[in-house]
Amino acid sequence: MSSKVKSSATPSTTWPQVRAFRLRRHHLAPRGSPGSLVTVVRDVCGIQAQVMAAAETALWARVENLDPQEVRAALEQERSLAKIWCMRGTVHLLPARDVALFVSALGLSQLRDHERWLAKRGLSAQELAKMSATVLEALEAGPLTRKELGDRVTARLGLSARPWVEHGWGAFVKHLSYEGRLCFGPNRGQEVTFARLDSWLQDFVRVPVEEAQMGLIRRYLQAYGPATPQDFAAWSGLPMQEVNLAWQRLDNELVSVSIEGKKAWLLHNDLDEVQAQPPEDEEQVQLLPSFDVFLLSHRDKSHLVDAVHYKRVYRKAGWLSPVVLVGGRAAGVWSHQRRGSKLDLTIEFFERGSRSLREAVEAKAADLGRFLGVSCAVAFSKGANL
Q1: How many domains does the chain have?
Q2: Is residue 91 part of a domain?
Q3: Domain presence at residue 267
Q4: Which of 275, 267, 235 is nearest to 105 (CA)?
Q5: Which candidate, 251, 177, 246, places its Cα nearest to that of 212?
Q6: Which residue in 46, 69, 77, 157 has its CB near the most CB atoms, within 10 A?
Q7: End-to-end alpha-carbon separation of the chain, Å?
Q8: Strands, sheet with 285-288, edge to edge from the N-terminal-most edge strand
Q9: Using an 8 Å Cβ cutoff, are 154 and 161 in contact?
Q10: Is the dihedral of CA 360, 314, 17, 247 positive or negative?
Q11: Could you tell me if residue 44 is inside a domain?
C-alpha cells in the first residue's frame, strides 16, 4: 500500500515572476478596462493623494482611457471614492465601501500615537475633545473649508485655539479622520473642504479591530505579495507587535515562498498564479508619478531600483521622483513643466535606452497629454546617456 506524502519543500519563485504578478495586480500590465476606476483603487489598497495631481496620474497609469472628470465625479458626486488620512498618516483615496475596514484596522494605533504627539506639543485631551466637538458640530450643516472651520473653532473656543487652526491644522482634523468621523469633502476651486463622514458616506459600519487587520493583510498581499510582516508594517504604519499577532492569526491562509533565496509570504490562493506568471516584457513601460503606491509597498526597495540609483528615486524629506518603470523596475526618472496647452516631459534613463524603449515612452507621454488635455513633447536628457 502506498500513500502520497505532502512535500515540505518551500515553494520557490523568481523576481521576474513576482514583478509580473505585481504589475498585473496593480493594473499596470495590462491596464484596467474603462469604467474600472473604483475596482482599481480597491485592488491596490488605495491611492496616495496628498498631491491630488499625482493621484490622478497614478490612476491614469492604471485605467484605460480614463478622464480626470471620472475621478472627481467618483469623489464628489457619486461618492464611490473617499479621501481620508490612513496608512502612515498620509492622505489616500479609498473605495467608500472600504473606509470602515481601513479605519478599524489602523485607527486605534494611529490615535494612540497622535494623542502622544499632541500632548508633547501642549494640547490636552480636554482641549482636543472640545475642538473636535466644535468641528463636528460646525460640519452638521455641510462641508466647510479650512478657513470656515477655523473661524468657527476660534469663535467658539477663543483665540487660544487659533494657533492650532493656523499652524497645526492636521492636529485635530486628522484625529477625527483616524476616528472615522471626518473625511475630505468636495473641493471649492483650489481649496479643500472637510465633511462629517457619517453624513458624507453611506453605510459606514465599523469592523472589529482583529478582523479588520486580518482583512487588510489579505488585501495587501493580494496586491503586493509576496511580502513579509516587516513590509506590511512599513506600508501600513502599524507597530510590529500588532502586525505579528494579526499575521499569526492568518497562518492557515498563508504560504511562505522563496524568491531567489529571500523568504516572503503569499496567500495560498495566489501561489499558482505567481509561479505561472511569464517573465514580464523587458520593455513594458509605465510612467508613474511621485508617491505612486507601487514604489511604497515594501521596506527593502532593491527589487525596484539598483542601490546606485536609489537616491534618484527616494529623495530627502520623503519625496519620491516620478519614475519610468520598465519591466517592473525603475529605469529612470522624469519631470514635467506645463506651459498653457503644452506639457514638456524630460526623461532621464539610468542606463542607455533603446530606440524601441524611447518610442514606448513617447507613446505613454502622448496618452498622458490626452488625459491632461494638452499636447505633450518629450525630451531625453543629455544626462540620460542616450
Answers
A1: 2
A2: no
A3: no
A4: 235
A5: 246
A6: 46
A7: 67
A8: 285-288, 323-326, 329-339, 342-349, 375-380
A9: yes
A10: negative
A11: no
pLDDT band at 159 (very low <50, low <70, confident <90, very high): confident
pLDDT at 14 over 70: yes
Lookup: cell for 18: 513576482
Sheet holding 47-48, edge to edge: 47-48, 91-95, 81-85
In DSSP terms, which residues pair with 333 in a beta bridge? 323, 348
Rounded-to-integer distance, Cα 115 and Cα 178, Å: 11
Separation of alpha carbons 27 and 190, rounded Å: 30
Point out the domain boundary residue: 167, 200, 233: 200
Q: What phi-psi label fits residue 56: left (phi over 0), alpha (psi between -120 and 50 degrees) or beta?
A: alpha
Helix, strand, coil content of the chain in percent (nearest 5)? 50, 20, 30
For residue 44, with 0-12 CB atoms within 10 Å meaning exposed, 13-18 middle and 19 or more buried, which class applies?
A: buried
Q: Which of 93, 87, 96 is nearest to 71 (CA)?
A: 93
C-alpha–C-alpha distance, residues 359 and 244, integer Å = 46
Report the predicted TM-score, pTM, of the whole model to 2 decimal places.
0.93
Rg over alpha carbons for the chain, rounded to the nearest Å, is 22
Residue with cell string 460640519? 139
DSSP string, 174-199: HHHHHTTSEEE---BTTB-EEEEHHH
Give the SS3 label for residue 313: helix
- Tell me the β-bridge partners of 267: 254
Q: Which CATH number goes with the domain that contains 100?
A: 1.10.10.10
Tell me which DSSP letter residue 101 carries.
Answer: H
Helix axes 209-224, 229-236, angle to 10 degrees: 110
pLDDT on residue 6: 43
Q: Is 386 a residue whose pLDDT tops 60?
A: no
Query: How do residues 203-225 score in pLDDT, each as one tens digit?
Result: 889 999 999 999 999 999 999 99
pLDDT in tens, 284-321: 899 999 999 999 999 999 999 999 999 999 999 889 99
E strands present in the chain: 12-13, 47-48, 81-85, 91-95, 144-145, 182-184, 193-196, 254-259, 262-267, 285-288, 323-326, 329-339, 342-349, 375-380
Give the residue numbers spanning the domain of 117. Answer: 96-200
Q: What angle do CA 169, 155, 112 make, to 5 degrees?
A: 35
